[in-house]
Structures are given as structure tokens and as C-alpha cells.
Amino acid sequence: MGYEINRFQGEVDEELICPICSAVLEDPLQAPECEHVFCKACISQWVARQPTCPVDRQTLTSAQLTQVPRILRNLLARLMINCDNAQYGCTRVLNLDSLSIHLEECEHNPKRPVLCEQGCALVIPQDELKDHNCIKELRTLITKQQQKMNEYQLEFHELRYFILEQRREMQLLKDFMRALKTSNPSMRAIADAMDRDAQDREVVRWSGSLQRARVTRWGGMISTPDDALQRMIKRTLTEMGCPIHILDDLMENCHECRWPPGLCSLETRQNNRRQYENYVCKRVPGKQAVLVLHCDNQHMGEDMMIEPGLVMIFAHGVE
């Protein structure tokens, strides 16, 4: 619905009046063929009931409505209008295009949000402040929060039951596949491929949960870490949720004797130094070490990458 005409200062051109509500246009839209203009709310309700122009009855749908020309928007914007809160004491007269901004800040707006200074610190409409009861409002708030908590707990229990059912079905499927592998040799290869695929997906999911790392000093790489250092890194990987089927392989791949040809000696590492920056490295929290997983580095050549990946330990230089 449009703005009441008696709120405006001076005469309002009839071209700025909505034919439906007979008020000044609000959020105007235009019919494309006949170019008649209406309030957005008015014409939307009209065409929802009957898809015709209210003035000349030409066919009209909501999808055909267009924005009005800029000159019409400018004419509307220049109209001088009284504040919505004039009845509450506001005497401001301002351009129509400034009205919405003013209403948000108008001190006479009865619905302006204000902070309760009586102790509860709730934000409430200004016209409700005089009847506001802090204890009552806080009790209502606590009740609503308790209801939400109950809903969350119910949802949690439902999800937990669903997960348990999924785990049970997965275990049944694993048992079934195991039985097939034992009884039917032709199924063994299929089952093994499925197991490998599931393990690969698990590694990709785990890698996606890890933060990227940046190595600033590749020269600080420790190519022959001692047993104590390896045990410390392995314990950290376990705490990070490293898939159990790759944990031991990763730890074996932290020593240069297991590294690919491009890394297996000091000479080859120096020759391939420029390729280091192409590695996608993942952080090992709290340690000067990075994970270089095969699933993240398939762009690297076989001479620089092995499965399931590498653990690189440094004296310094990991960010």
C-alpha cells in the first residue's frame, strides 16, 4: 500500500498516485505494455487474483512487471513527507528517499529498540518499556532457551540412534563381505577394491580437516630422525585422528631411506629443491613437521611422491 497523500507537503502530481490504493506510490512497478504504474504490494495482490492490468484490463502477470523509469523514481524521492511518528511528537519533514533511514533513528519511534537499564539488559521496543518486568521477561527467556535445549537433546538422541543403526548396518555389510571373500574367490578382488576405495575416502576426509602449513626453510629438514622424535610425531598423528591403516606407513616414510628417488639423498634433494614449493603440506600441530599426503599431491611426479604420503620433520622453518 502507498503513502497517504495528506502526509505530503504541497501538491502531488497525479502521475505519482497508485490507481489501486489512491495513495502515493510505494516501491512502484510498471506494466510493460501500457506503462501504468502501481505500488508493488498493490499490483502483486491484484495480479495474484486476476492477471490483468487494473486500468485497461490488458493481460498482466507478476513476471512481466518492471522497474519504473529513473525520472519517476527521482520525482518520488524529492517529495517532502511527514515522519511516520508525527502523532508521537516528531516534527521532521524530509525527502521521501530519506524516510527509511530516519525511521531507524527517530527518537519518537515507539518501536525503536532500547536497552533496559533496570538490570536485565534486554533490548525491547520503546513503547513496551514502561510495562517491562525484568524478572518476567528473564523467566520467559529461560523457558524458551530450555525448550530449545530440549529440542536439541531430542535431535541429538535421534541422530545418535541413527548413527548407531548405520554402524550396525555397516558391520553387517562388512561381515557379509568377509563371508563372500572366504566362500567365493571371484568376490575377493571386488571386496578388496571396495575396502581400498573406502580407505582412500577416509584419508581424503581426514586430509580435508587439517590446516595447511608453509615451510619457509627447507634446508632445516631432518632426513634421519631418531626413534624418540619418531615416537613423538606418531603420538601426535594418532591424536590428530590419522586413519590407522596409513599411520605406520606414514611413520616409516619419515626417513630418507623410504623417500622417493627425488628425495632419497642429499644430492637429489639439492637438485630438486625448486620442486619443494609445489608440495601441498598439512600442519602437525605443535611440531616442526608437516604431512605431505599423496591424495593432496597427485600433481607431483613419481620421483617426488609415494603413497600414502611423507612425514617431513624440520629443525625449524614451519609456519
From TrEMBL:
Catalytic class of the enzyme: transferase
RING-type domain boundaries: 18-57
Keywords: Metal-binding, Transferase, Ubl conjugation pathway, Zinc, Zinc-finger
Gene3D superfamilies found in the cross-reference section: Zinc/RING finger domain, C3HC4 (zinc finger)
Pfam families in UniProt: USP8_interact, zf-C3HC4_2
PROSITE patterns for the chain: ZF_RING_1, ZF_RING_2
Record bears the keyword Cell membrane: no
GO molecular function: ubiquitin protein ligase activity; zinc ion binding
This enzyme's EC code(s): 2.3.2.27
GO biological process, one term: protein ubiquitination
InterPro entries assigned to the protein according to its UniProt record, in alphabetical order: NRDP1, NRDP1_C, Ubox_domain, Znf_RING, Znf_RING/FYVE/PHD, Znf_RING_CS
Associated pathway: Protein modification; protein ubiquitination
Catalytic activity: S-ubiquitinyl-[E2 ubiquitin-conjugating enzyme]-L-cysteine + [acceptor protein]-L-lysine = [E2 ubiquitin-conjugating enzyme]-L-cysteine + N(6)-ubiquitinyl-[acceptor protein]-L-lysine
Protein name, per record: E3 ubiquitin-protein ligase NRDP1
